Amino acid sequence: MSSFERSIDARLRSLEERWQDYQINGTFEQFVEFTLALNCVTEHLNRLKLPGLLRQCEGLEGAALALFGDGSSHPADAQSLAALDRQIRAIFSAIQMAQKSSAPMDRRDPGLHFNEEWTKLRSIWLVCEEGHQWYANLSQQLGFFGFRITRYDWNEVTPEDSSPMVIVFMPTSSDYGPEELQLIQQLRTKYVATQLFCLGVKKTLEAMVELGRAGADLLIQADQQTATVLGRVLELIQTQEQDAYRVLVVEDSATAVKMIQRSLSQHGIESTALSNPQHLLTTADQYRPDLVLMDMYMPHCTGVEAMRVLRQLPAYQSLPVVYLSSETDMGMWIEALRLGGDQFLSKPVNPVFLAAVVKSKIERHRDMLRASQHDSLTGLLNHSASKGHLNQLLAASQPGDQLCVAMMDIDHFKSVNDTYGHPVGDQVIRSLGWLLKGRLRSWDIIGRYGGEEFLVVLRNASLDDAYSVLDRIRADFASLPHEHGNGVMRATFSGGIASFPLYASGNELTEAADNALLEAKRRGRNRIERAGADLF
Asked: 125 phi and psi, to 5 degrees?
């Protein structure tokens, strides 16, 4: 069973059960449970970046919420029930088709001896004329980054039994005509789990709206082509489940806590409840929440007073705080917002809306934290975050664990900047970052250590494994063309690898890998050296 099947099946079973319960009994509470389960499926499809399925699910969710009402409006009438049931069956059918077409492809390369988990070959279709001006460069670039490229003419029938990760469209003329739009719409319907990218899009509202209606997911102007396509494709293969969201519920009503936690759990959000705000700081330190849901009035202190204390502590100065209250005093609301409150929700709160607010606040908070830990040029971890992740891995290591740390540096990088300019130098740095991201596994650590230097941590890898993988990446990077004003240039990198537990601490590993890197430079560059007794 694929990861897509495993991740969606449990949510679909829950949705089916909730829908059947409502069809049988028709109570408002059961309709609430159904909408929660539906919203959970929608959010998961969004996280997995499955645009066609997401659009269908959003349409069903809109129809369901239009019938939400209250206890007096349920059960819904027979016509509404039948319409919802048809939409549900259509979504289930589309997901089953996507599961069949997402079977693992044969990624083995008989010329390689790497563990298969390092070979990230994915299928990308390019829809264009054979001699299209963008085809050769884009297919070459994607091929270098490990993607399997297949070209189809606009009038060529695509196969029925496979589903690519991305379909990239390049218009025959300077615009997308009715026939092109019709084909995009047909492929959107057929390949619901595929991303559709349109290149050469005119920067006009009319053209972009038409493509969006046809089902395009990414619209790219001509001056953004290769870099944008590569960046977005690599984002897709890095999609993975995030750590569960954690919410601290500060509420003295047991009934309210039960409703809140049930709503959050339906969306995979973990929570812990606190009835006495006197224990707020201790509980926050232990639980490390992503968000606090705070009742306005509680024993011992108000929610505003509790938040004033939280905001005095550096660890919680940016932590989202959402109030749950029947308070109607506008002065109290303004005071709470001045102190850093994020939103008020009036009791009783719609559980679907509650979950949506919680998730959106946490996602923004995590995005902010992520931005502080990632390099803006490459999107990789920055220096301090790379070392922090390495030290966390070592702290959690068990007897028998293996990992390797590699330090890599682009050769003669100053001359690249001096000869071709800093924009080309930036593209060389970005290309190496993208190549590492595209070729290595999602659980490996990849960081821009500083300037043109990179740090990589390969988990569950021997020294020989790490050398084989990184040396192949080194050879491919040396062949990768980088465009500049007068043509293309090529660059190389050197690297050094050290292994755990031969070197026990993070500092020892990075120092040993750095010494091996220096030895690679001394031995002529464009090579990988392994740290050990036989190095010098």
From this structure: -100, 135
